[in-house]
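Q: My labmate handed me this sequence with no annotations at all. I'd like to see what the chain might look like in three dimensions before we decide whether it's worth expressing. Could you predict it?
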Amino acid sequence: MLRMKTALCVAMALSLFSRAEATAAFDLLQQAAVSYTGSLPCGGWDCECAFGRQKSCCCIAQPLFELEEATFIRMVGLWEGLSHLNSQIEELTAGCKIAFTAAMLPMSGCLGPFTSNVSISYQSVSLNQGNGYNPALGTFTAPHAGLYSFSFTAYSSVGSAGQRLYQKVQLMKNGQLMASSWEDNREDSEDSSTQTVLLQLRRGCQVYVELMSGRQLCGDTQGQNTFSGYLVYPFSEP
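A: Here is what I predict for the chain of 238 residues:
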């Protein structure tokens, strides 16, 4: 029993001595590193963390600085790319808020009949964003290339049954027929119809609604004949 206690005491003493010796050795190494004025040949290990956190003795500092610089250059490149993309988006969408809606002025009489097709002038304009619609001519000129949606409503009232409802209006694009609405009967005193179409337009294309020769629109006392359109999405022209 006595021998076991003695051995245990000796082991504890040796352990304490070893720890004290290691601590003393570390302190000596730390002091030597801090006071050393030359370059440390530390072979890639981080002496900044090991000894006094002196930047001059950090062997990994140069790779870190290079990585930091490469990361910064990469971030600058990404920022420039995003700025260029943002400029392209702004350029593409700058003139893309395009929409209009207009109606014929109220009338108790009739528009027509005429001896030739006549463009209808919708002069009561409630919206003309992008200024593409000309109320004097009744013509929409595309400020930007893109896909557009157009709608028109043709309304006519002859006052009483037995009189002839005889109207035909058509949506035109650069002089070409795109859609039409017509009525020819003596059974109804009034009637209306609406057409909606999607058209691909280049910048400068013109869209309008015309009244066919020999036809007429009558009795629109509340401005129910309307013409409207808007840009669905733009696209770049080749």
